[in-house]
Design brief:
single chain, about 120 residues, mainly alpha
Length: about 120
């Protein structure tokens, strides 16, 4: 199965991907993370979201896929922080935030509000 997004996967990589980036930066801003760390937090949030969508498309369960992605995002955040010689927490927390279950709830409510009832009720 190719990892290049198909038409079905592309539905999850447009506005939801932008939402994941905005949410990661908002969490970073709310946590008073220095602005120089916002691009890294946004990148980690986007990468985690895209990989989670791919794992789901490959047939992984939501729990296993999210756990694997969270571990990878955490490891990547630690590597970035180690290079910068600073704490990883301001990078990892915003990077993992788009993977939290509240994001799925938000996506479902957003789909319902935009008239996509079957997507809103069924989740992804």
């Amino acid at each position: 199965m190719p990892l290049v997004p198909t038409a079905v996967r592309a539905d999850h990589l447009g506005a939801p991907a932008v939402g994941a980036v905005v949410f990661a930066v908002a969490v970073a801003a709310r946590a008073r993370t220095p602005r120089r760390d916002w691009p890294a937090a946004a990148g980690l949030g986007l990468a985690g979201f895209v990989v989670a969508v791919e794992f789901r498309a490959l047939g992984f369960s939501s729990l296993v896929g999210t756990a694997l992605v969270a571990a990878v995002v955490g490891g990547a955040g630690h590597l970035v922080a180690r290079r910068r010689r600073e704490s990883a927490l301001p990078l990892v927390v915003p990077g993992i935030a788009p993977l939290l279950p509240g994001g799925a709830l938000y996506a479902s409510l957003s789909a319902l509000a935009s008239g996509r009832t079957t997507v809103g009720i069924g989740g992804w």
